[in-house]
Amino acid sequence: MKMLRITLVKSPIGYAETQKRTVASLGLTRLNTSKDHKDTPQIRGMINKIKHLVKVEEIS
Description:
3-stranded antiparallel beta sheet, alpha+beta, 60 residues, 30% helix, CATH 3.30.1390.20, globular
């Protein structure tokens, strides 16, 4: 299964509370931290919700 590396590149301060919770649920705590997740529709939906705050890379 494909994996995604999600990196927080912009702070969620000043954005809606739901976006802050989405960032936290992905395990991103500080700027420039990365987490690897399986490429599932649920993860893609979360990424789509906060796409202006994160950078996404596909890894194998």
